[in-house]
Specification:
With 267 residues, the chain is α/β, with parallel strands linked by helices. It is built from eleven helices and nine strands. α9 links the parallel β8 and β9 (220-221).
Amino acid sequence: MIIDFHTHIFPRQKASIILSELSGRADIPHFTDGTLHGLLSSMETAGIHLSCISRITTRPEQVVSVNQWLHDRKRENILPLATLHPDQQGGEDYIQQLRDTGFKGIKVHPDYQGFNADDRRMFPFYEVLQSLQMPILFHAGLDRGLSPPFRAMPSRLLRVHREFPHLIMIAAHMGGEDNYDETEEYLLGTPIYLDTAFVLRMMDKHTLHHFFRKHPIDRFLFGSDSPFSDQSADLTYLWNLPFLTQNEKEKIAGKNAADLLGVGTTE
């Protein structure tokens, strides 16, 4: 089973506007139209069996409606990750409700949502997620559309891990685009997962090889960041990496995510 752990879709009536704004602000191209249909078409071309989708909320009052929208997009081959906001009320009980309705994980973007990854406002959420063993995916490192300082750098993620050592954490973008030295210093060798979203084909191959050797191979997850990267090109690049064994490639491409999410591993 091939799993893309990191994709985004948007409401059809808003997708073109959102993609245009991001392209203008951050100079990021897009490879689908940003809709569910566009993602499904991309998955078919790439041979991807399951994609995890996410959206984030910038205001606490948006959380319930956005999660309902995500839940309504769930398919056999589409698995939504829920959103949370540090200022929402009753968030701890709400996480249990999310779990009960079938959500298997959470996605947050601290920069857009106005909190540091190690902000104590988030600690009650982390405590519940840890107890439920629900994974949380953090946007990590820089965001091309924003200015520094950034709120989920590897040092902050390590502090969260030390406070909540059994919390299942995923640092997107291999710990953060272009801050690979800090990722190596703080995250490599820890139990924190790294996803390959957006940066897989951009990373220097020597650095990429080094990451795959210094960090547990069971802690890497294939992600594209679709629509902001090409799923097919990213997956082909992974399959062709000369310094990974076939077994290692299969783990990164889907087995690790399947084990983490508790979904089928054969197709």
